[in-house]
Amino acid sequence: MIPSITLLVLLLIQLVALMLIYQQISKSTLFWKEIVGLFLVAFLTLSFMNYFFYLIIILYFYVIGIRHHLKNKKHLAAFYAIYSVTILSVIGNIVQLLIDKFFSTNIPITLLLQLAPFFMNTLMLHLFKTNFDFLVENYEQINKKILVNINALLFLLCTIQFIGYFFELRSQNIDRLNVMKTFAFFVIILILLFYLNMKTQLLQKEQLEKLKEMQLNDLTEYTAQIEALYGEIRSIRHDYVNIIASLKTGIEENDMAQVKEIYTDVLSEVKQSLQNQKYDLIQLRKIKIPAVKGILSAKLLAALQKEIVVNIEILNEVEESYFNTLDFIRILSIFLDNAIEAASISDQKQVTICLIQETNKQVIIINNSTRDTVIDKRKMFTKGYSTKGEQRGLGLAIVKDILGNYPNASLETEFQANHLTHTVVIQKKGATG
């Protein structure tokens, strides 16, 4: 194998490693056209820009991120692009130092070690338990200045690294400086990963605290409503005793006019009172997950305050969630908020909530009336899309992102006769069918 071909294969393997790192952290699968484009861009820019081709590669991955799922998360798209190129450069340089010292004449091992940055990155992410998915799902809550500063630091490291390559070609006396610089950069990247991990853990803790506070408030409201309902039921029971006594008197005296009057005026009023939708709250006793019970009661009361007709059905007791509890709460909140808002401005003003617990499966059905006559189901889960105005179409996109983390979950959306229905089905982990 001649040196020029070896260099070509070397670059190809490095690009494969770069692509694997990007896909690993961004959870994006590149299309074949994007892969071919990456190779073409790399070879063309390397020919014209020498080692400064990294600028175009970063821009290329940034555009891919925007096109895939990060249109409204530009700082994160930049982070994935810069991090991928930087980690390949720094770890790749460490690998090259080892190759020069131990394997300089062994071409097969040299080529094989070009994939080392990908495996090293995998090990680092595992050791630091860095959760990039959490960054995507909670992008709106993340302080953007943190991402801007991290991106700037990574870009600076990457730039210094590639400038170093440029000067290495013109000097043979900077090996020691190169070693010190590369390992210093590697330590900085480790510190950044540790910092990111600490920040995500802190944000997770804050979210859990908010969830607990929300759960406590919702359950307090739920308890107060239940106590009020039981008080009304006791009052109705007392009224029934008096009504029966009045009926008995009318029957004994054969006063049918009195019996009809009691039935028409009094019993019908009591019947109407018992049919009040607030008594549907009692159905929530079948839910044994406090956080879920709390959010459903809060949304049900919010809907009733807007004079929306709410039907709630809970088939069998729900003792556990097959979703992470926080994810389940977010999914329910988003669907119900959208349903209540859409129903409140529709003619029928209806919302139906159905939870079905089966042996190894849970089904959540949310149906609501809407004033829309046509809905584009393909677009409604994309970021930024909304029939309610700009910057308000993020909820359903978040649901899609959450469900993307559950291969055992599915979502179906139907629109018919001015009614929108979302059906989420999740299988218990380890269950089939």
UniProtKB/TrEMBL annotation:
InterPro entries in alphabetical order: HATPase_C_sf, NatK-like_C
GO MF annotation list: identical protein binding
Record keywords: Membrane, Transmembrane, Transmembrane helix
Domain called Sensor histidine kinase NatK-like C-terminal: residue spans: 324-427
Claim: Transmembrane is one of the keywords in the record: yes
Transmembrane parts of this sequence: 39-64, 76-99, 105-125, 146-167, 179-196
PANTHER family on file: TWO-COMPONENT SENSOR HISTIDINE KINASE
Protein name, UniProt field: Sensor histidine kinase NatK-like C-terminal domain-containing protein
Organism: Enterococcus ureilyticus
